[in-house]
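Weekly puzzle thread! Below is a chain. First person to post its structure in token form gets bragging rights.
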Amino acid sequence: MNLSVIGTGYVGLVSGTCFAEMGNQVICVDNNPEKLKKLNSGKIPIYEPGLEILFHRNIEKKRLAFTDDLKKAILETDVIFLCLPTPQGEDGSADLKYVFNVANEIGKILSDSKTNDFKMLVNKSTVPVGTSREVTAILQKHNINNFEVVSNPEFLREGFAVDDFMKPDRIVVGANSQKVFESRKFRDN
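Winning reply:
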């Protein structure tokens, strides 16, 4: 399956690398040129046991790539994982500006491309209840209808993230409709 991971922070880098290890083609997107330069030269900006081996193996097998080209990643992939920062505000709430900004960019890309390919946006960022509805509304403002926004919170512990991802004790997936689960494209993968 072709996947994109938007954001190469802790969750994004671990998720993208582990998805590639499972045999998927993964495009990781980030807007930080220095971080991309390091990743593309084989340097990992975080330490996580076991990540380096998987990272290099999947780059070598050409299953893992890094870019700042959001449009290319969106148009070439079926499943888009949002692994964006949601820093805590002064009142303790999650700041969702990065999630909403990327959702708006995705809406523009899909609208401009006139593609009718089904896209699944999976939110792995730590977000409050109702965020999927807001992301859905943003995409609908761009007249995008052939998509589903899914929630798939991460349960990665620092120092154990690769093991937690590859051998999870639970997987939580939530969607507003059966559309995602009934889609043969995703069910067979």
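Puzzle host: Confirmed. Bonus trivia for everyone else. The beta strands are 2-6, 25-29, 64-67, 79-82, 119-123, 147-151, 174-175.
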